[in-house]
From TrEMBL:
Top-level taxon of the source organism: Bacteria
Keywords attached to this entry: ATP-binding, Nucleotide-binding
UniProt KW Nucleotide-binding keyword: yes
PROSITE patterns associated with the record: HTH_LUXR_1 (PS00622), HTH_LUXR_2 (PS50043)
Protein name per Swiss-Prot or TrEMBL: Transcriptional regulator
Amino acid sequence: MRIVGREAECARLAGMLDEARAGHGCSVVLRGEPGIGKTALLDHLAENADGCTVVRATGVEFESELALASLSELIGPLFEVLRELPARYADVLMALVPQKIDDSPAPAVAGGGRHAIYAATLALLTAAAARRPLLCLIDDAHWIDDVSAAALLFTARRLLADPALIVFATRDVPEFDAPGIGTLRLEGLNEQASLQLLARNANVPALVGARLAALTMGNPLALLELPRVLPLESAAGLSELVEPLPTTKLLQRAFAASLVSMSTRQRQALLVCAAAGSAELEVVARALGALGIHLAALDEGTVSGLVQITGRTVTFRHPLIRSAVYSQAGPGERWQAHAALADACTSPKDADRRAWHLACASVGPDEQVAAALVATADRARRHGGIVAQAAALERAAELTGEPVPRARRICAAATIWSAAGALDHSEALLDQAEALAGDNVSARIEVLGDRAYHAVLRGRTGDVFDALVAEAAGAGPEDRLAAGRVLSLAMNAPLARWDVAATLEVCTKVMTLTAPDGHPNPSFPKGAVRLALAQVLAGQAAGAELARECVAVCERHVPNGACAELAEVLMYVEDYDLARRMIDHDVAASRAVGDIALLGYGLRRRAQLEIRVGRPLTAYSDALECAGLADAMAQPTTIAASRATLAMVSAVLGRADDCSAHAREAMRLCPDDLETEARVRYAVGLVALAGGRIDDAVVELRRADTVLRAVVEPAVVPVAADLAEALVRAGRPDEARLVLDRLDAAVAATGRRGRRAAALRCRALLARGAGAGPLFDAALEAHRGVDEPLERARTLLCQGQWLRRSRRRQDAYQPLAASLEVFESAEAKLWAEQARHELTVLGLRTVPSAGRPDLGVLTPQEWRIAWAAAQGRTSREIAAEVLLSVRTVDYHLGNVYRKLGVSSRRALIRQLGGSAELPA
């Protein structure tokens, strides 16, 4: 039947479907109030999807807390495609499809399971689209569970070159946010279309129809439903509708009225169906039988069109009918219906439904039901269903009678809610848990640990610092390890303000609690890693020794960021090879399990390492991925840290505007975090120095240096030498000497070879006449002991500048040419411009390295793909890493080739200076 009054919307959707058939993937969100016609548009699109595979899923209000319920419905018809996927994807999804009804364990994707689900969903839908154009329809998207919604939105944003169209239909509510996806908003029908719809379905006089169209504001479902329950043969039938009402209220009134004439048995039967959600018909039948009701009791509902029995399912004509049936029932009737449904859920695949039905049928504490919900939460965890896991744990806590166990379950729920971004709700739960914990020390420590974690996420660890220290001090022998874990979070407060003494004090107490023998505790190696960091910051040689002792323990521990934390310490002490081994361990482990938090944590530190060892292009790729992951986690401190890293990478690459933009964003998110401030001001100052904006460089580098005054370790944020150089170039040699005196003292305390070389370079800049020569030679000799090619190139640049100004033009050429080669290879444009200028002054004509692209012409996504291709990765390998389809990777590569003026991967590798071996 032709849809009424939606010609423009139908044309737009038809156009998108044609684009999908042509291989241009797209997606859209239909938004509008209940009854506005979203489902009708989906039906119309499906009816006209000739030559396409059509798959559908519908969110159900009562199932929004069942992890992956909607995704399971969607992928069921794609079972044959699923079986052909690579094992790493098939294993993740196989347990979800309806055909698999045994009780075998779900794939273990704990902690980061959500990322694995995303990748597997993308792989499945793009594989299905490769067989035949795919139309994927998601109705009532605001009610689908969180991980299904996230996986489908993740996939929808990546369908650029796949023959697929994904359409989400949702009420216009904030619960379903779809950034990056276009919106088609549905409004009410105009009067003409409203009258046309009424004439098709009811015998309503024209004047009455016009009035009804105005009162319903053209809502199609209201226009269809109200004539069923109101006497509209004359205007008198509208007497109680004196003004426009919210459509939901109008429809609920209409649907409730249709229930009045039904018998008690018939209403009970409909109530069971409403409470059952999308459960199979046999489950509904068993539940009805337990209540002494035959399935035939649904006949009146089917005759009146309220429900429809299709195959193995019972569906309501509209979700508002389901809501009306459920809300019209009394509490006792609802409990009875849920209890019958719980008994009817006998299959292992219905374990989660059974647990929730039992919970809905419970009116007081019940440990058995609570335990069933804990098991449901664990299954949700394995699939990455964060909201489902948190909701199950919270309800389990409500059904727990004893105060301390209840407090612990509330804490567990609060932790997961915080991971889902619901920090306010999580903190409200912790208030309950604290009251329940009472004088139980271990429970109080657990609550405090969660509060500390929230403080870290909000960047306000100082708010709970005193409480953390006090609680840990009162811990008994049986709680020492737990107290140490909690207290270790307290180090973030003094560290955020670079208070080295307080950081060292906290970390020493943590080590005393968790590893009193002084060696890393295999159960909690982070305690030793953090003490090593504090000792290194304080300039204590014991820090490097403890860090190296932690290596083997961290590598054996379940990946949780300990290796990445340790890598940062090893980087400061210039053990770059070992630092890389630690970071690569955590990055590889996080990719294997899909843990996006751990992956972002590792990538940020690897980007910092790549900068130190002179590979800023590789650092840029890692920093971009890290920033994308941080945005997905939506935690201010994580985003700020990623932006600070991008600011530093941009500074080394000479991209001043990008550096400033990233720095501003980092400071906006964490304005009181001195650790972030030191790093971003150093980045902004460094790019100013490279660009010859000396006064700006002095201002920013001075601020960073002031913030870092309590840090002895000179390699943490290596600002001192750059500040000294800026001061020399600003004509302020006395101030430069004071800075260098402090740097020399720090180098003497720590033995950092790279910082010694930088200090000698600055001393050479201060020297007069021939006295600079031996200092430059000594600096270059010091550089030999540490892998910092960009720092060595800067020394060569300064030496070449001095030689040219000393009229030793022939001697100046070699260091200037050598520095230019390094800077161009690293894409350090501003330093390269300085070297090129010096060579030009010598009378040598130089041009930028042939064919080297400007990074600015590529989008971040294009850059990551281009750089991966330049390292020799295939499109399939790149797709797995950046979580795109192979077709979309090739689409982006096509854009890269066009923008850079190349026609092959061989040429791309040459342009980007990648590490791939070129075939002969």
